[in-house]
Amino acid sequence: MGRLIIVSNRLPMSLDVSDDGSYSLRQNVGGLATAIGPYHKTHKDSVWVGWSGVDPGQYSDEEIDLIREQYESRRCVPIFLSKEEVDGYYAGFSNDTMWPLLHDFAHEANFDPETWRVYQEVNEHFLETLVPLLRKGDKVWIQDYHLMLLPQMLRERFPEASIGWFLHVPFPSPEIFRSLPWSREILEGILGADLVGFHTVDYAKNFEGSVELLLDKHSDDEGRFTMPDGHEAAVDAFPIGIDYNLYRRTSRSNLARMMRRGIEEAAGKRPHSRYLSSLTAESNAAAEASAKEGNWWSHYAHEELPELHLAKSAAEGSPKPNKVIVSVDRLDYTKGIPERLRAYQRMLEKYPEWAGHVTYYLLATPSRENVDTYKRLKEQVDQLVGQINGKYSLLAWSPIHYITRSLPIKPVCGIYAAGDVALVTPLRDGMNLVAKEYLACHDGRDGSLVLSDMCGAAAELSEAFIVNPYDTEAVCEALHDALETSSEESAKRNIAMQARLKSRTAATWCAGFVSALEQVADVSSSDKRL
Ligand code: ADQ
Protein backbone atom coordinates (compact mmCIF):
# COMPACT_ATOMS: atom_id res chain seq x y z
CA MET A 1 0.00 0.00 0.00
CA GLY A 2 1.48 3.35 -1.02
CA ARG A 3 1.24 6.58 0.92
CA LEU A 4 -1.55 9.10 0.51
CA ILE A 5 -0.30 12.50 -0.65
CA ILE A 6 -2.99 15.11 0.05
CA VAL A 7 -2.72 18.31 -1.97
CA SER A 8 -4.86 21.34 -1.18
CA ASN A 9 -4.70 25.10 -1.57
CA ARG A 10 -4.06 25.67 2.16
CA LEU A 11 -2.33 23.37 4.63
CA PRO A 12 -4.41 22.23 7.62
CA MET A 13 -2.19 24.32 9.92
CA SER A 14 -1.28 27.99 10.04
CA LEU A 15 1.85 29.65 11.37
CA ASP A 16 1.75 31.60 14.64
CA VAL A 17 4.65 33.91 15.46
CA SER A 18 4.92 34.65 19.19
CA ASP A 19 6.31 37.85 20.76
CA ASP A 20 9.75 36.26 21.30
CA GLY A 21 9.91 35.48 17.57
CA SER A 22 9.42 31.70 17.91
CA TYR A 23 7.18 29.80 15.54
CA SER A 24 4.38 27.36 16.23
CA LEU A 25 1.58 25.83 14.20
CA ARG A 26 -2.12 26.20 14.89
CA GLN A 27 -4.73 23.72 13.57
CA ASN A 28 -7.06 25.38 11.06
CA VAL A 29 -10.79 24.99 11.47
CA GLY A 30 -13.12 24.43 8.51
CA GLY A 31 -14.53 21.56 6.53
CA LEU A 32 -11.42 20.29 4.76
CA ALA A 33 -9.07 20.35 7.76
CA THR A 34 -11.71 18.64 9.90
CA ALA A 35 -12.59 16.02 7.27
CA ILE A 36 -9.12 14.91 6.14
CA GLY A 37 -7.14 16.02 9.23
CA PRO A 38 -7.87 12.86 11.28
CA TYR A 39 -6.81 10.59 8.35
CA HIS A 40 -3.55 12.54 8.06
CA LYS A 41 -2.96 12.28 11.81
CA THR A 42 -3.58 8.55 12.05
CA HIS A 43 -1.86 7.46 8.80
CA LYS A 44 1.71 8.17 9.82
CA ASP A 45 3.05 7.91 6.30
CA SER A 46 0.62 10.38 4.69
CA VAL A 47 1.94 13.75 3.55
CA TRP A 48 0.01 17.01 3.07
CA VAL A 49 1.19 19.54 0.49
CA GLY A 50 -0.24 23.07 0.34
CA TRP A 51 0.24 26.81 0.52
CA SER A 52 1.57 27.93 3.91
CA GLY A 53 -0.13 31.35 3.84
CA VAL A 54 3.33 32.80 4.66
CA ASP A 55 4.63 35.62 2.44
CA PRO A 56 8.29 34.72 1.73
CA GLY A 57 9.01 38.43 1.12
CA GLN A 58 8.56 39.06 4.88
CA TYR A 59 11.13 36.49 6.06
CA SER A 60 14.86 35.78 5.62
CA ASP A 61 16.02 32.49 4.03
CA GLU A 62 16.97 31.15 7.49
CA GLU A 63 13.53 31.98 8.82
CA ILE A 64 11.84 30.27 5.88
CA ASP A 65 13.95 27.16 6.60
CA LEU A 66 12.79 27.18 10.23
CA ILE A 67 9.16 27.55 9.15
CA ARG A 68 9.58 24.71 6.69
CA GLU A 69 11.01 22.51 9.46
CA GLN A 70 8.00 23.25 11.68
CA TYR A 71 5.67 22.10 8.94
CA GLU A 72 7.74 19.07 8.01
CA SER A 73 7.67 17.86 11.63
CA ARG A 74 3.88 17.49 11.08
CA ARG A 75 4.32 15.78 7.69
CA CYS A 76 3.24 18.92 5.86
CA VAL A 77 5.15 20.32 2.89
CA PRO A 78 4.64 24.09 2.69
CA ILE A 79 4.49 26.00 -0.57
CA PHE A 80 5.51 29.66 -0.40
CA LEU A 81 3.73 32.03 -2.78
CA SER A 82 4.68 35.63 -3.48
CA LYS A 83 2.12 38.41 -3.05
CA GLU A 84 1.71 38.63 -6.85
CA GLU A 85 1.05 34.88 -7.04
CA VAL A 86 -1.52 35.06 -4.25
CA ASP A 87 -3.26 38.01 -5.93
CA GLY A 88 -3.45 36.30 -9.31
CA TYR A 89 -4.01 32.65 -8.38
CA TYR A 90 -5.97 32.86 -5.13
CA ALA A 91 -7.77 36.23 -4.84
CA GLY A 92 -7.97 36.50 -8.63
CA PHE A 93 -8.65 33.34 -10.62
CA SER A 94 -9.79 31.06 -7.75
CA ASN A 95 -11.98 33.47 -5.79
CA ASP A 96 -12.99 36.00 -8.41
CA THR A 97 -13.45 33.69 -11.44
CA MET A 98 -13.96 30.04 -10.50
CA TRP A 99 -15.85 30.54 -7.22
CA PRO A 100 -18.66 32.67 -8.75
CA LEU A 101 -18.80 30.58 -11.93
CA LEU A 102 -19.04 27.25 -10.10
CA HIS A 103 -21.81 28.67 -7.88
CA ASP A 104 -23.94 29.80 -10.88
CA PHE A 105 -22.93 33.46 -10.42
CA ALA A 106 -21.40 33.80 -13.89
CA HIS A 107 -22.28 37.51 -13.93
CA GLU A 108 -19.93 38.03 -10.95
CA ALA A 109 -17.06 36.09 -12.57
CA ASN A 110 -14.08 38.11 -13.71
CA PHE A 111 -12.46 36.58 -16.83
CA ASP A 112 -8.99 38.04 -16.72
CA PRO A 113 -6.21 36.49 -18.88
CA GLU A 114 -3.59 37.77 -16.45
CA THR A 115 -4.99 35.93 -13.39
CA TRP A 116 -5.47 32.84 -15.60
CA ARG A 117 -1.76 33.01 -16.49
CA VAL A 118 -0.78 33.20 -12.80
CA TYR A 119 -3.20 30.34 -11.99
CA GLN A 120 -1.41 28.10 -14.52
CA GLU A 121 1.98 29.09 -13.09
CA VAL A 122 0.95 28.34 -9.51
CA ASN A 123 -0.49 24.93 -10.51
CA GLU A 124 2.95 24.25 -12.01
CA HIS A 125 4.57 25.44 -8.81
CA PHE A 126 2.54 22.79 -6.95
CA LEU A 127 3.64 20.21 -9.54
CA GLU A 128 7.31 21.05 -9.05
CA THR A 129 6.90 20.64 -5.28
CA LEU A 130 5.24 17.25 -5.75
CA VAL A 131 7.68 15.77 -8.28
CA PRO A 132 10.62 15.08 -5.92
CA LEU A 133 8.26 13.86 -3.20
CA LEU A 134 6.45 11.09 -5.03
CA ARG A 135 7.40 7.45 -4.63
CA LYS A 136 6.29 4.33 -6.43
CA GLY A 137 2.85 3.23 -5.21
CA ASP A 138 1.77 6.62 -3.78
CA LYS A 139 -1.78 7.88 -4.30
CA VAL A 140 -2.23 11.62 -4.83
CA TRP A 141 -5.50 13.23 -3.72
CA ILE A 142 -5.88 16.78 -5.05
CA GLN A 143 -8.54 19.07 -3.54
CA ASP A 144 -10.82 21.63 -5.07
CA TYR A 145 -11.06 24.36 -7.68
CA HIS A 146 -7.71 25.97 -6.86
CA LEU A 147 -5.89 23.01 -8.43
CA MET A 148 -7.88 21.95 -11.48
CA LEU A 149 -4.90 21.82 -13.85
CA LEU A 150 -2.68 19.83 -11.54
CA PRO A 151 -4.14 16.34 -12.23
CA GLN A 152 -3.21 16.48 -15.95
CA MET A 153 0.14 18.17 -15.27
CA LEU A 154 0.97 15.31 -12.91
CA ARG A 155 -0.32 12.70 -15.38
CA GLU A 156 2.04 14.02 -18.08
CA ARG A 157 5.03 13.66 -15.74
CA PHE A 158 3.91 10.35 -14.23
CA PRO A 159 1.62 8.49 -16.67
CA GLU A 160 1.24 5.60 -14.20
CA ALA A 161 0.36 7.67 -11.12
CA SER A 162 -2.86 7.11 -9.10
CA ILE A 163 -4.54 10.51 -8.98
CA GLY A 164 -7.81 11.57 -7.37
CA TRP A 165 -9.43 15.01 -7.49
CA PHE A 166 -12.40 16.19 -5.42
CA LEU A 167 -14.50 19.35 -5.80
CA HIS A 168 -15.92 20.80 -2.57
CA VAL A 169 -18.25 23.26 -4.30
CA PRO A 170 -21.00 22.66 -6.90
CA PHE A 171 -20.30 22.03 -10.56
CA PRO A 172 -22.64 24.17 -12.71
CA SER A 173 -24.65 23.19 -15.78
CA PRO A 174 -22.68 22.93 -19.07
CA GLU A 175 -24.37 26.12 -20.34
CA ILE A 176 -22.95 28.12 -17.44
CA PHE A 177 -19.56 26.38 -17.40
CA ARG A 178 -18.99 27.02 -21.11
CA SER A 179 -18.94 30.81 -20.50
CA LEU A 180 -15.43 30.38 -19.05
CA PRO A 181 -12.96 31.20 -21.84
CA TRP A 182 -10.63 28.44 -20.60
CA SER A 183 -13.33 25.83 -19.91
CA ARG A 184 -11.72 23.16 -22.17
CA GLU A 185 -8.30 23.52 -20.55
CA ILE A 186 -9.90 23.17 -17.11
CA LEU A 187 -11.85 20.03 -18.06
CA GLU A 188 -8.75 18.46 -19.61
CA GLY A 189 -6.81 19.36 -16.46
CA ILE A 190 -9.34 17.62 -14.20
CA LEU A 191 -9.56 14.55 -16.45
CA GLY A 192 -5.90 13.84 -15.78
CA ALA A 193 -7.22 12.17 -12.58
CA ASP A 194 -8.25 8.50 -12.29
CA LEU A 195 -11.13 9.46 -10.00
CA VAL A 196 -13.07 12.74 -10.16
CA GLY A 197 -15.35 13.26 -7.13
CA PHE A 198 -18.27 15.58 -6.36
CA HIS A 199 -20.65 15.97 -3.41
CA THR A 200 -23.77 14.99 -5.39
CA VAL A 201 -24.85 12.98 -8.41
CA ASP A 202 -26.23 16.19 -9.97
CA TYR A 203 -22.82 17.91 -9.91
CA ALA A 204 -21.24 14.77 -11.39
CA LYS A 205 -23.84 14.82 -14.18
CA ASN A 206 -23.15 18.51 -14.87
CA PHE A 207 -19.45 17.72 -15.16
CA GLU A 208 -20.08 14.81 -17.53
CA GLY A 209 -22.42 17.00 -19.58
CA SER A 210 -19.73 19.69 -19.83
CA VAL A 211 -17.15 17.15 -21.00
CA GLU A 212 -19.60 15.91 -23.64
CA LEU A 213 -20.47 19.42 -24.79
CA LEU A 214 -17.02 20.98 -24.76
CA LEU A 215 -14.66 18.05 -25.40
CA ASP A 216 -17.05 15.86 -27.36
CA LYS A 217 -16.19 12.89 -25.17
CA HIS A 218 -18.70 10.39 -23.84
CA SER A 219 -18.50 8.32 -20.70
CA ASP A 220 -19.18 4.58 -20.66
CA ASP A 221 -22.02 2.99 -18.65
CA GLU A 222 -19.96 3.18 -15.48
CA GLY A 223 -19.26 6.89 -15.84
CA ARG A 224 -15.66 6.51 -17.09
CA PHE A 225 -13.99 8.63 -19.76
CA THR A 226 -11.16 7.08 -21.77
CA MET A 227 -8.49 9.69 -22.39
CA PRO A 228 -6.11 9.93 -25.42
CA ASP A 229 -3.16 8.62 -23.35
CA GLY A 230 -5.22 5.52 -22.54
CA HIS A 231 -5.93 6.20 -18.88
CA GLU A 232 -9.51 6.15 -17.67
CA ALA A 233 -11.12 8.88 -15.55
CA ALA A 234 -14.07 7.72 -13.42
CA VAL A 235 -16.62 10.24 -12.14
CA ASP A 236 -18.68 9.67 -8.98
CA ALA A 237 -20.46 11.29 -6.03
CA PHE A 238 -19.01 11.26 -2.48
CA PRO A 239 -21.16 13.38 -0.12
CA ILE A 240 -18.98 14.72 2.69
CA GLY A 241 -20.03 14.21 6.32
CA ILE A 242 -19.02 15.74 9.64
CA ASP A 243 -17.31 14.41 12.75
CA TYR A 244 -20.73 13.89 14.34
CA ASN A 245 -19.49 12.87 17.79
CA LEU A 246 -17.13 15.85 17.95
CA TYR A 247 -20.03 18.30 17.47
CA ARG A 248 -22.36 16.35 19.75
CA ARG A 249 -19.72 16.26 22.50
CA THR A 250 -18.63 19.86 22.05
CA SER A 251 -22.22 21.12 22.31
CA ARG A 252 -22.23 19.62 25.83
CA SER A 253 -18.93 21.24 26.89
CA ASN A 254 -18.99 23.85 29.66
CA LEU A 255 -18.20 26.75 27.36
CA ALA A 256 -20.92 25.77 24.88
CA ARG A 257 -23.42 25.38 27.73
CA MET A 258 -22.51 28.83 29.07
CA MET A 259 -22.92 30.33 25.62
CA ARG A 260 -26.27 28.67 25.18
CA ARG A 261 -27.43 29.84 28.60
CA GLY A 262 -26.34 33.42 27.87
CA ILE A 263 -28.25 33.46 24.60
CA GLU A 264 -31.35 31.97 26.19
CA GLU A 265 -31.26 34.59 28.94
CA ALA A 266 -30.78 37.45 26.51
CA ALA A 267 -33.63 36.13 24.39
CA GLY A 268 -35.90 35.90 27.43
CA LYS A 269 -36.17 32.09 27.36
CA ARG A 270 -34.77 31.92 30.88
CA PRO A 271 -35.44 34.44 33.65
CA HIS A 272 -34.19 37.79 32.43
CA SER A 273 -30.76 38.92 33.39
CA ARG A 274 -30.62 41.68 36.00
CA TYR A 275 -30.11 44.28 33.31
CA LEU A 276 -33.15 43.30 31.33
CA SER A 277 -35.53 42.88 34.27
CA SER A 278 -34.51 46.16 35.84
CA LEU A 279 -34.98 47.89 32.51
CA THR A 280 -38.40 46.31 32.11
CA ALA A 281 -39.40 47.08 35.68
CA GLU A 282 -38.15 50.64 35.42
CA SER A 283 -39.96 51.38 32.20
CA ASN A 284 -43.23 49.92 33.44
CA ALA A 285 -42.94 51.65 36.80
CA ALA A 286 -42.20 54.96 35.12
CA ALA A 287 -45.20 54.62 32.84
CA GLU A 288 -47.52 53.67 35.70
CA ALA A 289 -46.27 56.42 37.99
CA SER A 290 -46.66 59.05 35.36
CA ALA A 291 -50.15 57.81 34.53
CA LYS A 292 -51.13 58.12 38.21
CA GLU A 293 -49.75 61.62 38.33
CA GLY A 294 -51.61 62.49 35.15
CA ASN A 295 -48.43 63.58 33.38
CA TRP A 296 -48.99 64.78 29.85
CA TRP A 297 -46.73 62.10 28.46
CA SER A 298 -48.38 59.18 30.27
CA HIS A 299 -50.86 58.74 27.46
CA TYR A 300 -48.02 58.82 24.97
CA ALA A 301 -46.06 56.31 27.02
CA HIS A 302 -48.95 53.87 27.25
CA GLU A 303 -50.55 54.27 23.88
CA GLU A 304 -47.74 55.07 21.52
CA LEU A 305 -44.65 53.40 22.85
CA PRO A 306 -45.54 49.76 22.38
CA GLU A 307 -42.19 48.69 23.76
CA LEU A 308 -43.35 49.52 27.29
CA HIS A 309 -46.32 47.20 26.93
CA LEU A 310 -44.26 44.52 25.32
CA ALA A 311 -41.64 44.73 28.00
CA LYS A 312 -44.44 44.30 30.51
CA SER A 313 -46.11 41.43 28.70
CA ALA A 314 -42.79 39.64 28.29
CA ALA A 315 -42.17 39.94 32.02
CA GLU A 316 -45.63 38.67 32.92
CA GLY A 317 -45.75 35.86 30.39
CA SER A 318 -47.22 36.23 26.93
CA PRO A 319 -49.03 34.10 24.40
CA LYS A 320 -45.81 33.44 22.36
CA PRO A 321 -42.96 31.49 23.93
CA ASN A 322 -39.62 33.19 23.37
CA LYS A 323 -37.55 31.57 20.61
CA VAL A 324 -34.06 31.79 19.14
CA ILE A 325 -33.11 31.52 15.46
CA VAL A 326 -29.45 30.95 14.56
CA SER A 327 -27.23 30.94 11.50
CA VAL A 328 -23.46 30.52 11.07
CA ASP A 329 -21.72 31.50 7.83
CA ARG A 330 -18.70 32.98 6.21
CA LEU A 331 -19.91 36.29 4.81
CA ASP A 332 -20.19 35.12 1.21
CA TYR A 333 -22.74 36.07 -1.44
CA THR A 334 -23.44 32.38 -2.13
CA LYS A 335 -24.76 31.95 1.43
CA GLY A 336 -27.88 34.07 0.75
CA ILE A 337 -27.61 36.29 3.83
CA PRO A 338 -29.44 39.38 2.46
CA GLU A 339 -32.23 37.19 1.03
CA ARG A 340 -32.56 35.45 4.41
CA LEU A 341 -32.73 38.77 6.26
CA ARG A 342 -35.52 39.92 3.96
CA ALA A 343 -37.48 36.75 4.72
CA TYR A 344 -37.02 37.32 8.46
CA GLN A 345 -38.16 40.91 8.06
CA ARG A 346 -41.20 39.68 6.15
CA MET A 347 -42.03 37.30 9.00
CA LEU A 348 -41.87 40.11 11.55
CA GLU A 349 -44.17 42.14 9.32
CA LYS A 350 -46.63 39.32 8.54
CA TYR A 351 -46.71 37.81 12.03
CA PRO A 352 -46.31 40.80 14.37
CA GLU A 353 -47.06 38.57 17.36
CA TRP A 354 -43.41 37.45 17.16
CA ALA A 355 -42.16 40.95 17.97
CA GLY A 356 -40.38 40.81 21.30
CA HIS A 357 -40.39 37.00 21.27
CA VAL A 358 -37.97 35.86 18.61
CA THR A 359 -34.27 36.76 18.42
CA TYR A 360 -32.07 35.96 15.45
CA TYR A 361 -28.38 35.28 16.24
CA LEU A 362 -26.62 35.97 12.96
CA LEU A 363 -22.95 34.88 13.04
CA ALA A 364 -21.42 36.03 9.76
CA THR A 365 -17.66 36.32 9.68
CA PRO A 366 -16.16 38.45 6.89
CA SER A 367 -13.99 36.54 4.42
CA ARG A 368 -12.04 37.39 1.23
CA GLU A 369 -12.19 41.06 2.15
CA ASN A 370 -9.74 41.96 -0.61
CA VAL A 371 -12.36 41.09 -3.26
CA ASP A 372 -14.74 43.98 -4.10
CA THR A 373 -17.90 41.84 -4.24
CA TYR A 374 -17.30 40.76 -0.65
CA LYS A 375 -16.77 44.34 0.52
CA ARG A 376 -20.07 45.35 -1.09
CA LEU A 377 -21.85 42.37 0.49
CA LYS A 378 -20.60 43.33 3.96
CA GLU A 379 -21.98 46.85 3.48
CA GLN A 380 -25.30 45.46 2.28
CA VAL A 381 -25.67 43.09 5.26
CA ASP A 382 -24.64 45.83 7.75
CA GLN A 383 -27.27 48.08 6.23
CA LEU A 384 -30.05 45.48 6.25
CA VAL A 385 -29.38 44.46 9.86
CA GLY A 386 -29.41 48.13 10.87
CA GLN A 387 -32.62 48.71 8.94
CA ILE A 388 -34.45 45.72 10.50
CA ASN A 389 -33.21 46.45 14.01
CA GLY A 390 -34.05 50.12 13.56
CA LYS A 391 -37.57 49.41 12.36
CA TYR A 392 -38.60 46.64 14.78
CA SER A 393 -36.52 47.06 17.96
CA LEU A 394 -38.37 47.61 21.20
CA LEU A 395 -37.02 49.07 24.38
CA ALA A 396 -35.64 45.78 25.69
CA TRP A 397 -35.50 43.68 22.53
CA SER A 398 -33.76 43.72 19.17
CA PRO A 399 -34.75 41.29 16.45
CA ILE A 400 -31.14 40.56 15.36
CA HIS A 401 -27.91 39.96 17.26
CA TYR A 402 -25.26 40.41 14.59
CA ILE A 403 -21.79 38.95 15.31
CA THR A 404 -19.01 39.37 12.75
CA ARG A 405 -16.11 37.92 14.76
CA SER A 406 -14.79 34.46 13.93
CA LEU A 407 -15.58 32.15 16.85
CA PRO A 408 -13.92 28.85 17.81
CA ILE A 409 -15.83 25.58 17.75
CA LYS A 410 -17.09 25.62 21.39
CA PRO A 411 -18.99 28.92 21.23
CA VAL A 412 -20.20 28.01 17.73
CA CYS A 413 -21.65 24.80 19.19
CA GLY A 414 -23.21 26.88 21.99
CA ILE A 415 -24.93 29.02 19.35
CA TYR A 416 -26.15 25.93 17.49
CA ALA A 417 -27.46 24.42 20.73
CA ALA A 418 -29.32 27.63 21.65
CA GLY A 419 -31.14 27.73 18.30
CA ASP A 420 -34.76 26.59 18.32
CA VAL A 421 -34.45 27.06 14.58
CA ALA A 422 -31.39 27.08 12.30
CA LEU A 423 -31.83 29.13 9.16
CA VAL A 424 -29.48 27.67 6.54
CA THR A 425 -30.42 29.16 3.20
CA PRO A 426 -27.49 29.35 0.77
CA LEU A 427 -28.31 30.36 -2.81
CA ARG A 428 -25.81 27.66 -3.87
CA ASP A 429 -23.54 25.47 -1.76
CA GLY A 430 -21.54 22.34 -2.54
CA MET A 431 -22.66 20.56 0.63
CA ASN A 432 -23.06 22.93 3.62
CA LEU A 433 -21.67 21.53 6.84
CA VAL A 434 -23.44 24.03 9.08
CA ALA A 435 -26.81 22.26 8.63
CA LYS A 436 -25.19 18.97 9.68
CA GLU A 437 -23.32 20.49 12.62
CA TYR A 438 -26.56 22.06 13.92
CA LEU A 439 -28.30 18.67 13.92
CA ALA A 440 -25.38 16.99 15.73
CA CYS A 441 -25.60 19.69 18.43
CA HIS A 442 -29.30 18.83 18.84
CA ASP A 443 -28.72 15.10 19.30
CA GLY A 444 -31.47 13.80 21.59
CA ARG A 445 -33.26 17.17 21.50
CA ASP A 446 -35.71 19.17 19.44
CA GLY A 447 -34.73 22.05 17.14
CA SER A 448 -35.88 22.76 13.59
CA LEU A 449 -33.76 23.09 10.47
CA VAL A 450 -34.89 25.38 7.65
CA LEU A 451 -32.72 24.33 4.72
CA SER A 452 -32.19 25.61 1.19
CA ASP A 453 -32.87 23.20 -1.66
CA MET A 454 -29.84 24.70 -3.44
CA CYS A 455 -27.18 22.90 -1.39
CA GLY A 456 -25.82 19.36 -1.48
CA ALA A 457 -27.02 18.74 2.10
CA ALA A 458 -30.68 19.02 1.02
CA ALA A 459 -30.41 15.65 -0.75
CA GLU A 460 -29.59 13.93 2.57
CA LEU A 461 -31.66 16.06 4.97
CA SER A 462 -35.08 15.77 3.39
CA GLU A 463 -36.95 15.87 6.74
CA ALA A 464 -35.88 19.51 7.21
CA PHE A 465 -38.12 22.46 6.22
CA ILE A 466 -36.83 22.62 2.65
CA VAL A 467 -37.13 26.00 0.88
CA ASN A 468 -36.18 27.85 -2.25
CA PRO A 469 -33.87 30.52 -0.78
CA TYR A 470 -34.87 33.07 -3.43
CA ASP A 471 -38.57 32.79 -2.47
CA THR A 472 -38.97 35.33 0.36
CA GLU A 473 -42.56 34.37 1.07
CA ALA A 474 -41.74 30.63 1.22
CA VAL A 475 -38.78 31.17 3.58
CA CYS A 476 -40.95 33.44 5.75
CA GLU A 477 -43.64 30.74 5.99
CA ALA A 478 -41.14 27.92 6.62
CA LEU A 479 -39.53 29.99 9.37
CA HIS A 480 -42.90 30.64 10.97
CA ASP A 481 -43.82 26.93 10.74
CA ALA A 482 -40.44 25.90 12.16
CA LEU A 483 -40.90 28.25 15.11
CA GLU A 484 -44.39 26.85 15.72
CA THR A 485 -43.43 23.16 15.42
CA SER A 486 -43.93 21.10 18.56
CA SER A 487 -40.90 19.62 20.32
CA GLU A 488 -42.16 16.10 19.56
CA GLU A 489 -42.52 16.80 15.85
CA SER A 490 -39.09 18.41 15.48
CA ALA A 491 -37.37 15.68 17.54
CA LYS A 492 -39.02 13.09 15.27
CA ARG A 493 -37.75 14.81 12.12
CA ASN A 494 -34.27 15.13 13.61
CA ILE A 495 -33.89 11.48 14.61
CA ALA A 496 -34.10 10.32 10.99
CA MET A 497 -31.55 12.89 9.80
CA GLN A 498 -29.21 12.34 12.75
CA ALA A 499 -29.15 8.59 12.12
CA ARG A 500 -27.88 9.27 8.59
CA LEU A 501 -25.28 11.80 9.77
CA LYS A 502 -23.96 9.36 12.39
CA SER A 503 -23.27 6.71 9.80
CA ARG A 504 -21.90 8.96 7.02
CA THR A 505 -19.17 10.90 8.77
CA ALA A 506 -16.12 12.85 7.64
CA ALA A 507 -14.01 9.76 8.34
CA THR A 508 -16.19 7.45 6.22
CA TRP A 509 -16.18 10.04 3.40
CA CYS A 510 -12.39 10.18 3.46
CA ALA A 511 -11.94 6.41 3.64
CA GLY A 512 -14.61 5.93 0.92
CA PHE A 513 -12.83 8.22 -1.55
CA VAL A 514 -9.40 6.71 -0.89
CA SER A 515 -10.66 3.16 -1.33
CA ALA A 516 -12.55 4.09 -4.53
CA LEU A 517 -9.33 5.67 -5.84
CA GLU A 518 -7.43 2.46 -5.14
CA GLN A 519 -10.07 0.45 -6.99
CA VAL A 520 -10.35 2.64 -10.10
CA ALA A 521 -6.61 3.07 -10.39
CA ASP A 522 -6.29 -0.73 -10.28
CA VAL A 523 -8.98 -1.18 -12.94
CA SER A 524 -7.55 1.58 -15.13
CA SER A 525 -4.24 -0.24 -15.23
CA SER A 526 -3.50 -3.53 -13.53
CA ASP A 527 0.05 -2.36 -12.84
CA LYS A 528 -0.41 1.33 -12.61
CA ARG A 529 2.16 2.69 -10.19
CA LEU A 530 4.83 5.33 -10.27
P1 ADQ B 1 -17.54 26.47 3.16
O1 ADQ B 1 -18.01 27.33 2.05
O2 ADQ B 1 -16.55 27.09 4.07
O3 ADQ B 1 -16.94 25.06 2.66
P2 ADQ B 1 -19.44 25.04 4.99
O4 ADQ B 1 -19.67 23.71 4.41
O5 ADQ B 1 -20.66 25.63 5.59
O6 ADQ B 1 -18.92 26.11 3.96
O7 ADQ B 1 -18.33 24.88 6.10
C1 ADQ B 1 -17.94 25.96 6.88
C2 ADQ B 1 -17.23 25.51 8.15
O8 ADQ B 1 -16.72 26.66 8.81
C3 ADQ B 1 -18.16 24.83 9.14
O9 ADQ B 1 -17.43 23.85 9.83
C4 ADQ B 1 -18.60 25.96 10.10
O10 ADQ B 1 -18.82 25.54 11.42
C5 ADQ B 1 -17.41 26.90 10.05
N1 ADQ B 1 -17.87 28.31 10.06
C6 ADQ B 1 -18.59 28.92 9.10
N2 ADQ B 1 -18.82 30.20 9.44
C7 ADQ B 1 -18.24 30.38 10.64
C8 ADQ B 1 -18.14 31.49 11.52
N3 ADQ B 1 -18.71 32.65 11.21
N4 ADQ B 1 -17.44 31.35 12.66
C9 ADQ B 1 -16.90 30.16 12.96
N5 ADQ B 1 -16.97 29.06 12.19
C10 ADQ B 1 -17.63 29.18 11.04
C11 ADQ B 1 -16.74 24.45 1.36
C12 ADQ B 1 -17.97 24.39 0.45
C13 ADQ B 1 -19.12 23.70 1.17
C14 ADQ B 1 -18.68 22.30 1.62
C15 ADQ B 1 -17.36 22.36 2.37
C16 ADQ B 1 -16.80 20.96 2.64
O11 ADQ B 1 -18.33 25.70 0.06
O12 ADQ B 1 -20.25 23.59 0.32
O13 ADQ B 1 -19.67 21.76 2.48
O14 ADQ B 1 -16.37 23.07 1.65
O15 ADQ B 1 -16.67 20.23 1.46
Automatic annotation (TrEMBL):
One GO BP: trehalose biosynthetic process
UniProt keywords, alphabetically: Glycosyltransferase, Transferase
One GO CC annotation: cytosol
Signal peptide (UniProt feature, chain positions): none
EC class name: transferase
Enzyme Commission number(s) from the entry: 2.4.1.15
MF GO annotations: alpha,alpha-trehalose-phosphate synthase (UDP-forming) activity; trehalose-phosphatase activity
Family per similarity comment: In the C-terminal section; belongs to the trehalose phosphatase family.
Name of protein: Trehalose 6-phosphate synthase/phosphatase
Source organism of the structure: Bifidobacterium psychraerophilum
Range covered out of full length: 1 to 530 of 809
